Amino acid sequence: MNKNHFTLFIILLLIFKTEAQTSVLSVADSLYQSGDYKSALKKLGEVKPPTFQTLIKQGEIYQKTSNYSKAIELYNKALTQKESLKVKRALGKAYLAQGNANQTIKIYEEILSKGSANLILKYDLAKLYTKEYRKKDAIPLLESLIQADSLNPGYYYELGKIYKNKGASEFMKSGNYFLD
Length: 180
Fold this sequence. Notes:
Blueprint: H1 2-33, H2 37-45, H3 52-64, H4 68-81, H5 85-97, H6 101-113, H7 119-131, H8 135-148, H9 153-166, H10 168-174
Helix pairs in contact: 1-2, 2-3, 3-4, 4-5, 5-6, 6-7, 7-8, 8-9, 9-10
């Protein structure tokens, strides 16, 4: 009988802990939405030990308030608890906002190497390659995007810009004459 009571106690404890975390996240969201991000961060910081969700929420707030170093720190902590492509992408965006394009490229390439079919991420990586003068990497990525979604004019536009910068003969080969 004691074993059953102990099991019931553990289950109830887990349920209440989950509900408490959910309420903290709700309160923090409400505080942040009203513009009181400091109180939201304080409320999230009260959760001990920090959970995956609270670390992400703190990282998002720090990123939105341009404290990219702190956001990167929190996203990395969250990733030690649980693997998440969404958090890795947010980490990449924080690095990019901080001016570290090479780290962002590494993260995006890692995500895509795991078989992600995220066309938006591929497009962001292609634009980043172009910005970082890695046009040879951008061209095949943009061509694969065109194969996956031929109706998106942004892919053609980015590819056309690359070919135009490479010179007239390459530009004509691209078929993107609408840029001239």
